[in-house]
Amino acid sequence: MQEKVSTRTQSLQNNPNLSQKDVRVVERILSKNDLKALEMKKRYQADGLYVLNFMSSPGSGKTTLLENLAGFEDFKFCVIEGDLQTNRDADRLLKKGVQAQQITTGEACHLEAAMIEGAYDILQSKGALQESDYLVIENVGNLVCPSSYNLGAAMNIVMLSTPEGDDKVLKYPTMFLCADAVVVSKADLMEVFNFRLSQVQEDMDRLKPDTPIFTLSHKDTHSLRAFKDFLAENRARNYQSAHVF
What we know:
Rossmann fold, seven-stranded parallel β-sheet, 9 helices
């Protein structure tokens, strides 16, 4: 923990956009979040839940992926949804029979562990946690802010949609360094957008070697099943992300 704090402090102090007062404020916020994330991780484990933190830019297809995963009878999950406004994503999942609790953050471009705690309590009161093997946290759509906030998840999944382009890994390295797996969505559009999967692979090899990369399309159920099986295998061996936020 001391090494983690020292590294973070140095990074903040080297930021030319932050004054020393700003650094102290940011440190207090992040330290408070880390403690709450550790507390939540213990709760997840005590409740027998394998927690997945899905991160991406807006419109990458996170909710659509969860709707499709709902079609697998052997993948029992509930969801905490994060958006600046509206309950639309939670409502979509409820229509698919998935228990979902929406968090509206207002102006915040990320979820924090304390926000998760409140939604978690609500899902628990509804019996959703007891009926689930997984809890999926669908983070606020943003390729920057969520990468700084630990939520205590076992795995961090970063999604990149084909229309966004194949150059995002090195443009947003802090986000992709979080990834225990990368999902390239809307893969059926690769030719249309001249999307090079080889570029994503090359950039991930430079940034974080050996990170699994999945290509998904709603037209290809085999790719979805392969991703679902990957998650199940990691749950079975109790894989826990080693990433330090």
